[in-house]
Amino acid sequence: MQTNKYILGVYDNPDKIYSTTKKLINKGYKVDDVYSPFAIHGMDRLLGIKRSNLTVAAFLFAMTGLTLAVTFQVYVSKIDWPMIIGGKPNLHIPTYIPITFELSILFTAFGMVTCFFIVNRMFWGKNADIIDPRVTDDLFVVSVQIQENKTDIQALNQILVENGALEVRERIKD
Amino acid sequence: MSYESPIRDQLVTGGKTYRDVTRDVTRPLENAPSKSWWIGFSISTLVLALWIGATTYTVFVGLGAWGLNKTVGWAFDITNFVFWVGIGHAGTLISAVLLLFRQKWRMSINRSAEAMTIFAVICAASFILSHMGRPWVAYWPIPLPNAFGTLWVNFNSPLVWDVFAISTYFSVSLVFWYIGLIPDIATVRDRAVSKARKFWYGFFAMGWNGSTKTWHRYEVISLILAGISTPLVLSVHSIVSMDFATSLVPGWHTTIFPPYFVAGAIFSGFGMVLTLLIIAREVMNYKDYITEAHLDAMTKIVMVTGTMVGMAYITEFFVAAYSGVEYEQYAFLNRAFGPYWWAYWTMMTCNLVAPQVFWFKWARTTPWFIFIMSIIVNIGMWFERFVIIVTSLHRDFLPSSWAMYTPTITEVSILIGSFGLFFFLYFLFCKFLPTINMAEVKSIIPTHHDDHGHNHVKGENHAN
């Protein structure tokens, strides 16, 4: 049974928190997340986070931008109001390239970033769920979820402290 | 793979800890501005007032306020536009291209370089608006259904491409910059004591809490944004160059323009980054973050791109001679020995000859000297655009149409005033946002160990 109780171990060093998290995972604890002021390389793999699908989203947005740009330019210059400018043909694919390229990039950037905000549930004015105010400064926090009748809190505390935790505390998430 | 090599010099000096980084970078934000900030800000506000005055005058009077004539229809306006867009290229280049090449020295300079990009593009856009003469119809190049029975724009025109390129570049750079700022805004939020500060930084931090899940996605999108910004930055100045290159004017009608303009843009952009950062590291005391090694790396880029630009000047001459086209040959001889010879030789001296001093280590690591050089680079690149635009136009095909161009006081005021606009925005940025990317800098400073040295493998091989 999972509970809404978490044990937090606070560290001041990315290497210590990396090795501690590794130990905790090997011993079967349920590490919920690790909070850090910068991305610790390899931590996402350690926590078993799958590679984000945002890359796929980016590609799809690029294709959307590309399709819209080509369709619109062809519609305007060939179908809706064909004009002869400088004796050039109405359907002039090479001159569509710059705008098509720019719109693909524009759609990719905005689409992907919007998806990023959605999957992280980030929005302007959101009240941050701050684990520790210094986690954006110089502290690193590992959060272990307590499983009822399964997690030995004493042993967990000991592992955290033995590996150099500055502080161990409990947190209840609602 | 993130490996702290024991041989390489450290990118940040002074044995900074994570806490030191936070403190050093947030200091200007959390304290009353220094005297030098106030002096700089006041001067730029005054110069900005000059810009507002001269631009307003132009809008009221019309383009008759400028020194343009039937032959020279583009002069200071487009020169300044290309100049500012060029300056706007270094920011994205530093953050995107150098990210893809894993050049970690970019990390303490990318934030202010990106800010510079955004402000420079704002300055550039202001020239596009004012050169239209009737800025209230500035939306006409955008293909909108309209009152003329939906008469669309001409997609053959590079001017239309330019509208798309510049607006895409501006908005994507803004997004890239903001994404990079989020973790740092959260840092400021978490240190905030006043209510207003907590609210505003909290508002823009979007609830960032430093979770590994978020960091993972953050790194993925940073990499993709870098990946799409790299071709974007190259495309923007290529398209700007096509405004000229797709025309029939001798001196403009050249296939070498796109790469040559891009090299020039990087050259002038780095010139401006150096100007700003040398001041910033003195005034804000960031010498441990923006070290001489950073200056060294940037001046090398200045030298390489300056030489590329110089090579392009010489290639243009060669192609004109080799092509046998009389108009082309005349255009280039007129540039070098015609009435605007002084502009041409200023350009040659500042852009090709002057940066060659950076072959010497002393020149690359002496801040005051680099500062002077960076100004010379900017002057040279401004003259490059002036030479290309004015000297190509002023000798028309018919000698009866030949004319000379002299700027009016209004045009000079707009040019000087645009620096006011630029620095006004830059000073506000220095006061309200962290000028160094704290999260990235923290990831490259060595961890402070109690027991062992600095050389260790930080993590496993990782895609990002």
Protein model, in words:
- The complex is a heterodimer of chains A (174) and B (464).
- Chain A is built from 5 helices and 4 strands.
- With 174 residues, chain A is of the alpha+beta class.
- Chain A folds into 2 domains: 2-37 and 138-172, Alpha-Beta Plaits (2-Layer Sandwich), CATH 3.30.70; 54-119, no CATH class.
- In chain A, strands 2-3-1-4 form a 4-stranded antiparallel beta sheet, with helices on one face.
- In chain A, 36% of the residues are buried.
- With 464 residues, chain B is mainly α.
- Chain B has 16 helices and no strands.
- Chain B has helices at residues 18-30, 35-61, 76-87, 89-100, 110-131, 158-191, 195-205, 212-245, 257-283, 292-323, 326-337, 341-353, 361-365, 367-393, 409-432, 438-444.
- The longest helix of chain B has 34 residues, at 158-191.
- Chain B is globular, with a radius of gyration of 24 Å.
- At the A-B interface, helix 1, strand 2, helix 2, helix 3 and helix 4 of A face helix 1, helix 6, helix 7, helix 8 and helix 16 of B.
